[in-house]
Structures are given as C-alpha cells and as structure tokens.
Amino acid sequence: MAVLSQKMAAHHTQCDDVFARAEAAAERGDWAACAQSATAFRDDVLAHFAVEEGTIFPAFEAATGMTEGPTRVMRGEHVQMRDLMAALVAAADASDAEAFSDAAETLLILMQQHNMKEENILYPMCDQTVGNDPVVGAAIEALGQKGAS
After folding, report:
1. Structurally, how many domains does the chain consist of?
2. In CATH, what number is assigned to the domain containing residue 121?
3. Which InterPro entries does this UniProt record tie to the protein (predicted)?
4. Is the N or the C terminus of the chain less surrounded, counting Cβ atoms within 10 Å?
C-alpha cells in the first residue's frame, strides 16, 4: 500500500505550487501577493512537518526501533527549512528582493533534496511499516483536507 507515499508527495507538490506563486509575485515586484503566498507556503509546510514529526515519524520509529536513522535526518532538515522560511517571509514582508531571492534559492535546493529523500526512501519505508496505521491515515487525511493555500 503506497497511499502514505502518494498523499505526502502530493502535498509536497501543493506546497511547491504555493512557493512558486510567492517567487512569481516577487519577480513582478508584487510584494503584497508575495508576502501572502510566502506566509501561506510557510503555514502549509509547517502543517506538513507537524504531521510528519507528530504522527508519521513516531509511528515509524515505534514500529522499526529506528530513532537515529532517516527520521532524525529529516527532523534536522526541517529545522533548517524553518529558519529559511522565516527569512523568506521576513524578506517578503520587508519587500527585500535580495534577501527574498537568497532565502528562496537556498530553500529551493534544500527542499528538492529533502523531498527526494522522503519520497524515494522514507515514505516507501513508512508505507511498509505504518501505511495501514489508522492514526497515521487520519493525520494524512486531515492534512489533505486542509489543502495547500
């Protein structure tokens, strides 16, 4: 069953779309739209992280006993992305094109690498171990119902 992989990867794509809207608005110099999209992106990604860190990762760790493996790496990258998203939103709010571009460029590279690791390694492992867990399923469904902004 690959429902977890599919739904979490689909949410990555939804978040990427909101990020692209923020970048497009910055390119146009529409800082109000940029700030709105950057904030929506941050909120969507934080909701995604909350499902992973609060439900999926603990369930995976409990099922496998692996607490120092891929989930630890993902949590560390989440910390880095939180900092970059804060810088992105602050730059958008300040209409600071250079700071926005710097944060966006670094964040994009980190997100691409991070999402590939989740989608190609961690999520398939989670499908096998906790893919049928009703608590995990409910958390993913709630994330999907919120949808990306």
Report:
1. 1
2. 1.20.120.520
3. Hemerythrin-like
4. N
